[in-house]
Amino acid sequence: MALVSVIIPVYNVEAYLRRCVDSVLAQTHAQLEVILVDDGSPDNCGSICDAYAAADDRVRVIHKANGGLSSARNAGIEKAGGDYLAFIDSDDTVAPGMIAALLAALEREGADIAVCGFVKVGEDFRPLGKPNAFGPALLTGEEAMEKLYTNDYIYFTTVCNKLFRRSLFDKVRFPEGKLFEDGYVAFRCYLACGWICCLPDPLYYYLTRPDSITTSTVGVKNLDGVDADEDSMMLLENSAYPLLAQKARLKYFAAVTNNLRRFDLGEEAVRERFSTLHRAFRKHYRRLMREGAFSRKEKLLMTLFYLSPAVCKKVMEARKL
What we know:
Spore Coat Polysaccharide Biosynthesis Protein SpsA, Chain A
């Protein structure tokens, strides 16, 4: 029976950690290695992790200085001994049969990744809206990447509703210090894999709480999303998928202009961040103008941004572009 390593980054989730770990240990697939990565949590999470390790020999604990979600996941990958990897956030829970269902689908189809649906829940475990689901389907890596540019992008981007063949992470790691880290990994894994098996069943329960990273206002850090779009564009520029590269160019420039409209360049932190984005954009400008399927208006904005984000923003506001 295949060993599955479940990596759970832990930081400041004392109120939720036990129900998360309990749901993992209750999996019907018993061959588990549960790696709890205490990312320098300031509460009692470290002690809770140690208690689980003492009570169940399937649990291993890593204590480390705080480095963020990607750093914690990467630490877990380094220590993982399983044939397959799963990533679960420490305030979420999973259905008892999630790992078994994903593993059975993956092995049945000879796939490298298996994906299930997920549903957002409140602290009372009641569903908040309809499940996010897709399938059933068997997709190629190219087809999965195409889905990253559709309304199904969350299902295909997040790592928490997936089971990965361990070999996909021989050279892939999460980008440390960045938000939108799942996108970096999704593109690289889809580029490297043969088949992705998609299940519609909502077996992952995503807790929505006001103080979590993804539901809080993080201000200028949201501009990490532009970096993620630039990264995927650069990956696809050097791939065998020209149509996907075209979609990536369009999405990258849309992220630049949408965020320029949204943010106030009068704030020093925003100006500094846009200065970094501006330098990166200038490297891509000629290729975007030459190969991107942009309208005349978009090319005008592209040239203005190339010259100066501040000038571009003034023109956008004056002409309501």
